[in-house]
Amino acid sequence: MQMPEPDQEVLARRSEIVDALRAIVPGEGVIADTREMRPYESDGLTAYRTVPMIVVLPETVAQVAAVLKYCHENGVKVVPRGSGTSLSGGALPLADGVLLGLGKFNRILDIDFDNRTVTAQPGVTNLGITTAVQHEGFYYAPDPSSQIACSIGGNVAENSGGVHCLKYGLTTNNILGLEMVTVEGEIMRLGGKHLDSEGYDLMGLMTGSEGLLAVVTEVTVRILKKPASLRALLLGFPTSEQAGACVAAIIGAGIIPGGMEMMDNPAINAAEDFVNAGYPREAGALLIVELDGPEVEVDTLIERVREIAEANGSTTLRVSDSEEERNAFWAGRKAAFPAVGRISPDYMCMDGTIPRRQLPEILTRMTRMSEKYGLRVANVFHAGDGNLHPLILFDANQPGELDRAEAFGADILKACVELGGVLTGEHGVGVEKRDLMPEMFSETDLNQQMRVKCAWDPKGLLNPGKVFPTLHRCAELGRMHIHRGQLPFPDIPRF
Ligand SMILES: Cc1cc2nc3c(=O)[nH]c(=O)nc-3n(C[C@H](O)[C@H](O)[C@H](O)COP(=O)(O)OP(=O)(O)OC[C@H]3O[C@@H](n4cnc5c(N)ncnc54)[C@H](O)[C@@H]3O)c2cc1C
Question: Does residue 486 fall inside a structural domain?
């Protein structure tokens, strides 16, 4: 994986840059010692590591603005970082860049039960928002499995999702207001506590922008009242095809569960070994279907889902009768990633999306790919929205296995696109899927997206090397045309 070449001219100015940043963020807010910067060298995509040039940990919005203004005026690249749980390498540092950590922005600023909103600093964890309001029976719906650690700022940047997003939407559907700082150091506010905002939908644009457009310094989210009743079904099927057909039949019947997750046999067994959730080890696929709402409605829906599951050949069927049992059903699914970590020295978590009806086809293709690459795969899906998380198992200490795992992962994502889906469901593009972007987008599409990037960051200083497979100079965008095999601007780095 190629990254932009470190700029030697910037590196030569390192001590001058450190001094300038220390004047903005005094005390321990600037880290320049290599050993102390090591914890920041990677994010959740640990296959890639780079020690940043400098780590800066501001505490106020004014400091963020001053750091960005300084970096902009002095041609220094900046990589924003929340909690560093990105699985696509979005927070991977640059050797000639500042890593801007937002971890000290960890305060809830406002809780407004009348308007059903919480305003939080970007470093507050996803779960921290629910924790702050649960005493009044409220919660924040998007729930990534990393929710104890990932930050709400990172959730906005990645448009993160989770089990409950099938019914309640992704981050983009649950935020109402943002404060952010542009690369020039200007502070902007979008939206507020109200449902709609004027002008272009810049909040939509910011959500999922992976730290390439601006730095988020405050987030206002919508909170929901906890449903009166929550019950889950644990359904085992002989094959993934039958489980997939059951998912389609449930949605087709007009039922939108609060969550609907699928695991294949290797994932079932890894999770069962880890948490003893009572999963049927022999099942080819497992579905967890959660229904929420008023008690009478939930009871009726449970019966309807039960009938649909039986009609689709379920061989195990359990319904939770208590909160403990419902939590036990989820425990294995929530712990699926660490559980798989116990059966393989390394694994790579992919994230692609397919139309639901293509589930059997993608599974068949993955089995063939698994044989071709000689690597095992365990599958965990957000089944309701067609979002796949194949976990490719490998051993990085075996020569060539990482390369094979990456090639396997790329083939899965290409297959997702071929089957009418998309490259990412919720983990973002980062560096992981960057070079696959042309599989999904034409050059015209990509240029148009880069023009948006250029409008916000004409010097290309915010998180360069991520998302886009080619580093265009903004001034030249639009004139990129290969004429008779002659590539204009041959000196522009292409990753
Ligand atoms: C075990 C595990 C399970 C996971 N499960 C899920 C899941 O179920 N669903 C899901 O969607 N994701 C999941 N993830 C991925 C990850 O947790 C999310 O992408 C999360 O939103 C990243 O948040 P973070 O604070 O760690 O961001 P980081 O990793 O620090 O950064 C992610 C990206 O956001 C940018 N960024 C961070 N903060 C800001 C900011 N304040 N302003 C501008 N840009 C910013 C960074 O530059 C980077 O591009 C999982 C990760 C792990 C390790």
Answer: no
Domain count, the chain: 4
Distance CA 383, CA 264 (A): 11
Express each pLDDT in 426-446 by its tens digit. 899 999 999 999 999 999 999
Relative to the CA of 90, which ligand 1 atom is closest? 49
Q: Is residue 457 part of a domain?
A: no
Indicate the burial class of 129 (C-beta count within 10 angstroms; 0-12, 13-18, 19 or more): buried
CA 341 to chain centre: 19
CA–CA gap between residue 381 and residue 353 (Å, rounded):
9
Residue predicted with more confidence, 492 or 435: 435
Q: Which residue has the higher pLDDT, 467 or 335?
A: 467
CATH number at residue 428: 3.30.70.2740
DSSP notation for 85-105: --SSSTT---TTEEEEE-TT-
Ligand 1 centroid from CA 43, angstroms? 9
- CB of 165 shorter than 6 A to ligand 1: no
Question: Could you list the residue range(s) of the whole structural domain that residue 291 is in?
Answer: 229-337
